[in-house]
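Below is a filled-in request sheet from our internal design queue. Each sheet records the structural input a requester submitted and the sequence that came back. We keep these sheets so that new team members can see what a complete request looks like end to end.

REQUESTER: design group, bay 2
PRIORITY: normal
MODE: inverse folding
CHAIN LENGTH: 452
BACKBONE (tokenized):
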């Protein structure tokens, strides 16, 4: 019944029913059926009020609405538009200079907003028409914008990493208690932020190196993009770049140096974004009201899904699903490597139909304790999951980033061109995942240096 519950939930989600209601409703039906059949103890459901109180009382999750507010305000302050124009002038002498500018601005926007949909839509509306006007290959242009937009999954401060940090912390403690360690170590959001820095920056570097190589081998795909840099371009870049960069450094630096918790740093970031937008003259009551409404909408969605996922996990555990998952993963051929490959493939496929929030709250708590019990480092696992979901969001035909860009792309850009454009970037992300698998220290070295 536990496996049937998981399969039925996936099928119900494909009907378009809101995720939180699909999770909680399906779980309750299975609880009733299981109770009638004598295989489910109703005491699991009575634990739900304690779960709800724990969710609402969780200080780490309080960072979510604050980071969302910070991202929405920066998005509405036209930061990316000003920065892109200045960087495009600075890289005017470099063939594919506009593409490099788009990737750098997209990476900064991803770090600022942490919301994949917002970054892809913003860059698509702003950059895609400019790239096509300059004679860029449509497939490459679309692929570059989609790939850059998904960087919000991995570049801190990322909402995905905040949610993963909270879930993995609980899973890590469970794994240690099962292993007989009664003074368990903890893993924090700060650990994941530190662990994601090097892979995230390496991924941006891979995108840029691929673009430079392609512009050298196939210059016709960047035909009209070669012009002299405008005078004063460097000054314009610094004026546009420094304020948001200082804000990100303050937020991220305060977390990594242990000066503030993620929630406190997120509050500083949200306040700083408001000040920055006001100084740029882009903040008024209308913009503020719209930003607050968007923040409430996204936050309500996250917490409602978390409540639905809690109901699902309680019923799944009551039906014996937790022990079943542990046995399945433990008995796979290849040991921990085989189990990790199966989990990564499952997460990748689920990324076609579920957003990262559902996967984080539903799938990760089921598989992470067993993988950690088998010896996986929680920080490494968190970064691999984030990279995996990022790749899944790009993969045709169901990748979320493709849907976001398709919604704002010019009518002449067909889906086949879009799919063709993202393929090289999917290969680069898979290469990054392979590098992380071969050299786990890419994710674990920096947290060990900062936090000992």
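RETURNED SEQUENCE:
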């Amino acid at each position: 019944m536990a496996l049937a519950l998981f399969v039925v939930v996936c099928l119900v989600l494909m009907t378009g029913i809101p995720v939180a209601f699909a999770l909680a409703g399906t779980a309750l039906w299975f609880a009733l059926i299981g109770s009638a059949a004598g295989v489910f103890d109703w005491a699991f459901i009575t634990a739900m009020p304690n779960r709800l109180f724990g969710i609402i009382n969780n200080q780490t999750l309080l960072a979510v609405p604050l980071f969302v507010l910070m991202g929405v305000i920066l998005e509405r302050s036209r930061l990316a538009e000003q920065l892109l124009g200045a960087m495009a002038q600075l890289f005017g002498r470099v063939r594919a200079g506009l593409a490099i500018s788009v990737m750098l601005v997209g990476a900064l926007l991803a770090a600022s907003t942490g919301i994949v949909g917002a970054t892809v839509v913003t860059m698509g509306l702003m950059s895609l028409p400019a790239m096509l006007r300059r004679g860029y290959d449509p497939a490459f242009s679309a692929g570059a914008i989609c790939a850059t937009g998904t960087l919000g999954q991995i570049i801190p401060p990322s909402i995905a990493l905040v949610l993963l940090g909270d879930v993995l912390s609980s899973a890590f403690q469970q794994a240690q208690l099962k292993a007989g360690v009664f003074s368990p170590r903890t893993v924090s959001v700060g650990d994941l932020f530190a662990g994601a820095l090097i892979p995230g920056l390496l991924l941006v570097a891979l995108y840029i190196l691929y673009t430079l190589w392609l512009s050298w081998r196939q210059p016709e795909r960047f035909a009209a993009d070669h012009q002299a840099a405008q005078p004063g371009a460097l000054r314009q870049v610094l004026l546009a770049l420094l304020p948001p960069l200082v804000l990100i450094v303050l937020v991220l630096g305060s977390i990594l140096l242990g000066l503030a918790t993620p929630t406190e740093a997120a509050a500083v970031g949200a306040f700083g974004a408001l000040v920055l937008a006001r100084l740029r003259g882009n903040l008024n009551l209308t913009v503020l009201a719209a930003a607050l409404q968007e923040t409430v909408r996204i936050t309500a969605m996250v917490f409602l899904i978390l409540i639905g996922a809690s109901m699902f996990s309680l019923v799944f555990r009551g039906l014996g699903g937790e022990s079943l998952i542990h046995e399945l993963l433990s008995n796979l051929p290849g040991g921990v490597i085989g189990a990790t490959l199966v989990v990564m493939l499952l997460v990748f496929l689920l990324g076609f139909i579920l957003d990262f929030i559902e996967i984080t709250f539903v799938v990760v708590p089921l598989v992470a304790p067993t993988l950690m019990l088998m010896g996986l480092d929680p920080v490494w696992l968190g970064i691999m999951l984030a990279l995996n979901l990022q790749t899944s969001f790009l993969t045709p035909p169901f990748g979320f980033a493709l849907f976001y860009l398709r919604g704002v792309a010019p009518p002449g850009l067909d889906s086949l061109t879009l799919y063709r454009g993202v393929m090289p970037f999917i290969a680069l992300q898979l290469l990054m995942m392979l590098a992380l698998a071969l050299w786990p220290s890419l994710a674990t070295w920096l947290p060990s240096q900062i936090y000992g």
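SHEET NOTES:
- The longest helix spans residues 285-318.
- The two ends are 44 Å apart (CA to CA).
FILED BY: M.R.
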